[in-house]
Design goal:
alpha+beta; three-stranded antiparallel sheet; two-stranded antiparallel sheet; 24% strand; globular
Amino acid sequence: MPNKSSHAGHIAERSCVICRKKSDKSELLRFASVDGIQVFDLKNRIQGRGFYICNDSDCLQRLDRWIKKKRPWLIKKRLRTR
């Protein structure tokens, strides 16, 4: 039996940003924002701000709308130079 200060047996839990369902970290898909572009983080190793979504077709379809509506700063702004 692990003592109270041990992290043995701990399972990280995260929430889907679309449906707010809580699941084990390993069951969710992680996306990270790299220079304003959302990148699928397959190995959960990309540094920086990230978010999790369910591996569900409904949540995947609603991802673009969520980014545009709730997190517009995640979209890279391209400046025109003349």
